[in-house]
Amino acid sequence: MERQLSIDTLRKIATASAALVKGNSVQPIYDHVLIEDQRVVLGNATTQLEWFLDEEDRSFGFAPEAYPARDLERIAKSLPDAAQVQFGEQGQIRCGQSRFRLPVYDGAQYPVREEPLPSAWIRVQTQDLERIFPSLRRCAAKNDARTYLNGIHWQIRRVGQQEASLLVLEATDGHRAARFSLEYTPPLDSAHSPSGASADTEPSVPTLDAILPVEGLSAWMKLLSSRKIAEFSIAQIRSGVLFQGGGLRLWLTSLDGHYPSLDTILAQLEKRKDVLSLSIADFQRALTLATIGVGESQAVTLSTAPEHLLSVAAKGEERQAEDQIPAQWSGSLPLRYSFNIQYLMDVVDSVKETTKGSEDTEDPHMALRFDVSEKDPTSTFAEVPGGVLVVMPIRE
């Protein structure tokens, strides 16, 4: 028996496969894509995507098989637009004059995630997460032995007398941090699954507290963008968090460990009374020029200069660079702080991304908050819509 998929559907499968299937898995079956009558399943032991096919791509009675992911991706790239792809038994695929036979697994061998669907969900606007996700991703650690720092912390927190709650997302690698709060809405009912299943009880008050892997979240963001999904739902499950929207369902296993509280360091924001205000474009240009002069320490020094100027300077053993740009400094003492230049450039990028469209001026500004009265350099803050960024200086 054969079943048919459009080339457009196969290319969408290939896009998801490229984002989620790593290749060279310890369990080789995870290097494959399971195609069933009404859904496609792919991923790995900790991140798994279920894609419920549109009605025109569904079939009945087709024996499910798991196809090599990279081969499907190459086929999808090579076939012409408007092609119809026929899937036969034992890994046979044909399209026009093209014929393929791939080594496949029986679909029953593919380890599909099985866990009861939750009844309490929240809904989030994709554009809200798109605005802040790059900032969170930059602040998360990479390959840290403290595995919980390699993820992004998601938590629903109650705020105020009326017990209103917000979705709080935060990330830190110990040298910088980001925290954002998003409003969310509960679903109208208990989250109809794309497959048609729904809970038969009313939604309970949702809870969420999980550390989620950046790689899996990045894949979800790519899928939301490629499918133009404007809204999605989130729910806590026993092993982690479940995302769904637009016919997609993503299972993400939480990272082990207890996420460190950022409350103490973020509470210091009120003490940062010394404010440096400057043009984002000027600052970005000065930092780019400073990269010419950085040495092994990757340090760039910010210091106040006469005539309302800010010196942005970097000095290595054999090279140096300095630029002076207009800036407003509210501190009573001079400023002289050094930072990892990449961390500071990331802060500027984050400010640009999170404030885009919120300022009417053609030359948007940003503000960094310091406390230069402290003997040693202290954490520096940048407030952005719905959140705050923190970067630690280098102690000279």
UniProtKB/TrEMBL annotation:
It comes from the Bacteria. It holds the Pfam family DNA_pol3_beta_3. GO terms for cellular component: cytoplasm; DNA polymerase III complex. One of its GO terms (molecular function) is DNA-directed DNA polymerase activity. It is found in: Cytoplasm. Its main location: cytoplasm. GO terms for biological process: DNA strand elongation involved in DNA replication. Residues 272-353 form the DNA polymerase III beta sliding clamp C-terminal domain. Transmembrane segments: none annotated. Belongs to the beta sliding clamp family. This is Beta sliding clamp. It comes from Acidithiobacillus caldus.
